[in-house]
Amino acid sequence: MKLHEFVVRRLLLLIPVMIGVAIFTFAIAHIIPGDPAAIQCGDKCGVIVDYTDDGEPISAYEANRIRLKMDDSVTVQFWRYITDLAEGDWGESLLYHRPVVDVVKDAAPITLEMSFLALFIAYPLGIILGIISAVRQDRMFDHVSRFFAIAFVSLPIFWFAMMLQQILATGTEHGGICDPIFGTEGGCFPIYGRHDPSYTYPVDGYAWYYPAGGTGFHLVDSWFVTDEKLATLPSEWGSNWLLFKDTLTHLALPCAALGIASAGSLLRYMRASLLEVLHEDYVRTARAKGLSEFRVVIVHACRNALIPIVTILGFSIGGAIGGAVLTETVFAFNGMGRVAVTSIQYLDFVVIMGVTLITSVIFLLSNLIVDITYAIIDPRVRLE
Amino acid sequence: MRGWDDGKGDRDESRRRLREALSQSKSDLSRSWKIYRRSLLAMLGLFMVVSVSLVAIFAEDIAVEHPYRNLQDTEDKWSIDYEPRRADPFSEECDWHEQKIITNPNSPLFSEIVVAESDDKVGDDNRYYRDTLSVIQLIKLEDSLGYDLNLSLLSIDPSNSSLLVLSPELYGNTSLYAGVWVTYEFDNEAMHHWWLPDGHDVCIFGTNDQGHDLFSKVVYGSRVSLKIGITVATLTVIIGTIVGSISGYFGGRVDEVIMRICDIFFAIPGLILAMAFVAAMNQITSLTIPIWLGILFPIFVLAAFSNTYLNSNVPDDDQVSDQAMGLIMRYRGVLLALVAFFFFVVWMPGASWPDFFGISESRSWRAFASLGIIAVLGTIILADRKFILNTSFEGGLGRIRDSLDWTNPWRYLTFRTLAVFVSLALLFSFSGNEGEEIVLIKDFDRLWKVQAALIFTGWPGYARLIRGQVLYVKEMTFVEAARSVGARPGRIMFRHILPNAWAPLLVAFTLDIGGTILSASGLSFLGLGADAYTAEWGLMISESRRYFLLSPHLMLYPGLAIAVTVLGFNLLGDGIRDVVDPKNRR
User: Fold this and answer.
1) Which of B526, B541, B555 to mutate to test the interface with A (most CBs of A within 10 A)?
2) Cβ contacts of B570 on chain A, cutoff 8 Å
3) Would you tell me which residues 283-342 of chain B have a C-beta closer than 8 angstroms to some C-beta of chain A?
4) Tens digit of pLDDT for each residue in A213-224?
5) Does residue B384 have a pLDDT over 90?
6) pLDDT of B280 higher than 70
7) What is chain B's mean pLDDT, rounded?
8) Contacts of A272 in chain B (CB under 8 A)
């Protein structure tokens, strides 16, 4: 199979899965109790808002039912749901009174920024420790690192996050181990939030100085804040670097909480994969040629051992988005996880549908990219 | 002509061979134990799991207190010297307080007002307080403008620290609608009892904001967590095995459809899917009966099928597969022992059956359920005539021991085993004293929703795993041999493929118990799991968030408990993997 055939095949396989996910979310939304028409009008459902042509009164509730086209059959509603999805109309949130697309558009970059940074830390850490662990097999380092790898996978992510807050973000007077070093209050890391609260709107923590049409990734956006806006900020804030640093310090603890489990599992995968490769013939050949052990491990063995690691990337993105639900709750990030939790608490099923759909799209796309990368690195995959 | 002795010799000979085979399997047990023992981490994991299980079983004896008893009420019982740790919101000397309360303009005749609820106040020492103090005596009552009112207008209900407006004079007195100022004396002593730091002599983990002993709560929490973990893992394994083996064995279009469905499940992050599922089940008010059916139905189906196929009179092809797979087959005895351990030692007592089935409230419920079980059981036994025909005690225990077939655990998944299981269930449902019963979970159905959601999201993983194993084993020669002697698909499945495919399943099962405990505590943390103040670890952490800076011990100990339990199961799973799959051992 050629590479482009493989890609096309994989893309075609995505279609039934995406339709399935859409059916799934639609079904969940229809099982969840609660009448959206009643939720939207609240306690004013009985108010007469209009009259039909025959002079019959229409209450606010009935008007909502008509507007949401809820009297159609389920199949018609489903078909309209699919076509609306395709046109980019994902409905309007019952809780936020905003289009779901906007809600997701605001929330997704926050989660993605955190997840990507977490994986960005976890991958090198897990791989390097895994290599050392495999090379020093059955020695002290190996045992210790293996134990900690399993231990980190076993930690409840929300508890670990809260312990990080307690230890690193509260300051020594509250039992933490460090005092401010980044100019923050409390410990050496900010305790929650995405920005220093003194320079955001108090209600939603919105940092107004970031460009409106930006990427939403504040690690990137902070470099594009214009000088006029910087001038309005206090002097100890008035530079791109300081804004970047602020975002980064706020991201440190959530990323540590989110990445530690990935790092642990990666260590184990990398160790197993490298040990397998180290028993191959070509490694023995390389050793027989008199190459240094470092060169054998890093150049010959590691390159091949890293290939299966690529596949884990796809799963760890899914895992990170799932873990973000808990991390964002602890650190008060308004990302997708928080939106999902809030919408489920208030039974705002339009948002539940949107969030479920967008997370699965992100997961499927990242897996697709991973699979294609894998097919490029290791052409044997295409032969199956 | 053959005499008595010839026949006896034959019998002895066969006995001897059987015993030899049994001792062989025993040596396999000890050998796998040797392999397992080599790994320090695996032994540590076993130790952790056994300890947590023991804690769960003997929770009543270990815990010093009822998990939901406010220690404030039990001071005389325990005679603990509760030191006043907190500085009270109102100073020590001053034991009166002034508060404005708003009377209800619609019914001032009879309005009940809770006083002295200091709502999340931050005191001078940066501690939060949220409690209703008990009011001893009213000192002064003023209207909003500062004029004195007749004190007899109000009376105190000391039981719930509320004021009861009784006088008809209030009716129509519009000046009181803006509220009245009450000055009252409150019980300064009452505040000191319910908030202990960790490191106390009796309450070694301290108490929480409700005055519950944290140590007892953590101990009882092990029951809830183990129960959730093992129940969910067992049911997902059963469902996953059924679906995965169908998918793997029949292949083709069936396989394609099932795998695409699994893909859909994989595409949505598990936690979000579980959350949505819990929300979707919101309108289901009682899950007890569906869950009963959900547990029993798959077991019935599996038992019925495996029983039929294992006893079918196909030419004797048993030996073929037993030898073919080598190691995996030989270590099945260990695995069976482990499963038996989980079921009879951890799951059943740990689940505390009356609690488990949600019928602990009244004995009549329990009796009703037991009658139902007896009826079902009776029907099964009557229908399964072999049960009666085969039951004979000739030869005593030795016969029973000799007839144990260590090499094929699936054989025991029959109606007879089921009968034993259900009778044990009965036994447990009748056990427990009505009066002193500890209701562990305050709202059964909410926790069942979590379990149902985790089962719902978990089975595709197992289905995929089993499918892979079945595809692998299907190509073995012994399957071909069995097919060639005329065995039907069901028998091949249950007699030849599944017994050889279940080793990785056990590893996944063990690891999944830990994973399930993590997910369930995560859901509880998000407020979707157990009811408020249930002894559930995730929920306890969630409730400690309010006292984050003040009392880190409230979140430390439940979190450590989760970590130790999950770590134990993960290490155990890794150890078992090393035993059953030596190829993977590095």
Assistant:
1) B526
2) 150, 153-154
3) 283
4) 778 888 888 888
5) no
6) yes
7) 65
8) 584, 586
CA dist., res. B383 & res. B381, Å (int): 5
Q: Which tokens is A340 given?
A: 């999902």
Candidates A117, A342, A99; CA nearest to B528 is A342
pTM here is 0.75
Which pLDDT score, from 0 to 100, does residue B204 have? 83
For residues A23 and A29, what is the distance between their CA atoms, to the nearest angstrom? 10
* CB-CB under 8 Å, A340 with B548: no
The answer to whether the CB of A251 falls within 8 A of the CB of A114 is yes
Closest CA to A335 of A255, A262, A261: A255
Per residue, the 3-state secondary structure of B388-457, as one string, reads HHHCCCCCHHHHHHHCCCCCCHHHHCCHHHHHHHHHHHHHHHHCCCCCCCCCCCCCHHHHHHHHHHHHHH
Could you count the other beta carbons within 10 Å of the beta carbon of residue A223?
11
Query: Which H or E run includes B181?
Result: strand B180-186
Indicate the DSSP class of residue B169: G
Q: Compute the distance between CA of residue A59 and CA of residue A195 in angstroms, rounded to an integer.
A: 45
Q: How far does B219 lie from chain A, in Å, by closest CA?
A: 18
A250: closest CA among A182, A202, A203?
A182
pLDDT at B512 over 80: yes
Residues in chain A: 384
Residue B395: its pLDDT value, please? 40
Q: Which residues of chain A have a CB within 8 Å of the CB of B552?
A: 166, 175
**Cβ–Cβ < 8 Å for B562, A159:** yes
Instruction: Give which of B257, B230, B266 is closest to B458, Cα–Cα.
Output: B266
Nearest-angstrom CA–CA distance, B27 and B29: 5
Q: What percent of chain B has pLDDT over 90?
A: 8
Could you read off the pLDDT of B214-223 as tens digits, one per residue?
A: 888 898 888 8
Q: Is B204 helix (H, G, I), strand (E, B) or coil?
A: coil
Instruction: Specify the pLDDT at position B165.
Output: 45
Q: How many CA atoms lie within 13 A of B345 on its CB side?
A: 13
A359–chain B Cβ distance below 8 A for any pair = yes
Distance between CA atoms of residues A343 and B345, nearest Å: 41
Using a CB-CB distance cutoff of 8 angstroms, which residues of chain B are in contact with residue A166? Answer: 548, 552, 555
Chain A residue closest in CA terms to B528: A345
C-beta neighbour count of A130 within 10 angstroms: 27
C-alpha B116/C-alpha B95 separation (Å) is 12
For residue B76, name the pLDDT band (cuts at 50, 70, 90): very low
Tell me how crowded residue A279 is: count the other CB atoms within 10 A of its CB. 10
What part of A 70-109 touches B (C-beta under 8 Å)?
none
pLDDT band (50, 70, 90) for residue B434: very low
A145 CB near a chain B CB, below 8 Å?
no
Who wins on pLDDT, A292 or B168? A292
Q: Chain A partners of B272 at a C-beta cutoff of 8 Å?
A: 321-322, 325, 337, 340, 355-356, 359
B558: its two tokens: 């439940």
DSSP state of B492: I
Asked if residues B242 and B302 have their Cβ atoms less than 8 Å apart, the reply is: yes
CA distance linking residue B511 with residue B568, whole number of Å: 9
Residues of chain B contacting A134 with CB distance shorter than 8 Å: 586
CB distance A25 to A353 below 8 Å: yes
Angle at B90 between CA B88 and CA B94, to 5 degrees: 115
Q: How would you write B2-45 as a 3-class SS string? A: CCHHHHHHHHHHHHHHHHHHHHHHHHHHHHHHHHHHHCHHHHHH
Spatial neighbors of A232 by CB under 8 A, at least 6 apart, are: A209
